[in-house]
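Encode chain A's predicted structure.
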Amino acid sequence: MGKKKETISLIDTFSEFNELKNIDKATMISVLEESFRSVIAKANGTDENYDIIINPDKGDLEIWRNRQIVEDDQLKDPNLEITLSEAQKIDEDFEVGEEVTDELSLDHFGRRTILNLRQTLASKILELEKDNLYNKYKERVGQIVSGEVYQIWKKELLLLDDEHNELLLPKTEQIPSDFFRKGETARAVVARVENKNNNPKIILSRTSPVFLERLFEMEIPEIADGLITIKGIVRIPGERAKVAVEAYDDRIDPVGACVGMKGFRIHGIVRELRNENIDVINYTNNTSLYIQRALSPAKINSITLKEEEHRAEVFLNPEEVSLAIGKGGANIKLASMLTGYTIEVFRDIEGVDEEDIYLDEFRDEIDGWVIDQLKRIGCSTAKNVLAMDRERLIKEADLEESTVDEVLAILRFEFEGEDEQDEESDNGHDIEPATEENSEEDVQEDADTDTEEVKE
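Encoded structure for chain A:
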């Protein structure tokens, strides 16, 4: 009776583990049998003559050993053979050559074997649990999950899901303004699942465009139902995002459906993303129109496309340039990411100053990348740069103060040099050498002129 109790106790222990770790019954039986066979083979050299029967419903286990009957003086391996006299103690009708099957208890294998069995089982079940966790979350990559903030570290957060599985949210995958306290619930998308040395790590992200896409699917029924399709999403996490949408039914306004009445639908998404500004635009196959919409809220005058270079030159009124570029260049950067075109902004000024000089002509004196940065913010000519405030140049073009000062000095010298040359040229033509015929008249005229000026 004691042997039976110990057997049942062993199965019960791992039945509880099974329920806790959510391992299905068939898999548990397979693991148990494999573990028993491993221990038996280690103890006896082979497990081929053993039958193991596991009944998970009753919570018991049976081990049966099959041995062949041999003459009493012919016994070589007690594990595989049994003498005739021993067999006839079980049943008097047994004869040499027949097979005897007898049931064994765990005690038969000794306490060390049972301990080894427990360790083997625990190791296999832990390994199985890790495999299950990896496979479960591998299928959930790209889906939003929720977890309770369990531990806060400098470089990452540790979250626990409903089954107490560990999820990691690195600092690099958090929105810059994210702030979580222990015990709070955080939402993020499963970015990737790593499995180094059979140690699965579930990495989450709140900065991925996929996170924003899944939030749209959750909050906007038309997207979830397939009536509206998201054609593109780009983000600067915590600052700004652009989402291009398209409806297959002309009766549906995709932008209006996403934003909702008074922004009701999108407000929850904005709040989840820590007040990230979201521009929703209509997608179109017309590249010029797509770029124009992507640069919203700026109004475009004209666009020149360089298809082979995937570049677009956009011309705007001077007052629209700052809108097109956006705070810290965010708007133009996102528009370029969304459309796949490098966008250059130019001020569209009527009656161009003939004395102005395009920046490209200064490439011998100014580094090309500096000129490209200036052109990116709409400064395509020297006078465009000189007309802009120094602080704005430093901030919007993202240049060092010394670089901006050097550029301004080069451009100012260009125009000051021209002015000096013009003055010298003008003086040379205006002053004529005095002659006998005109000297007195000229002197008198000059005196009259000086007098008038003084009076005035």
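The longest helix spans residues 401-430.
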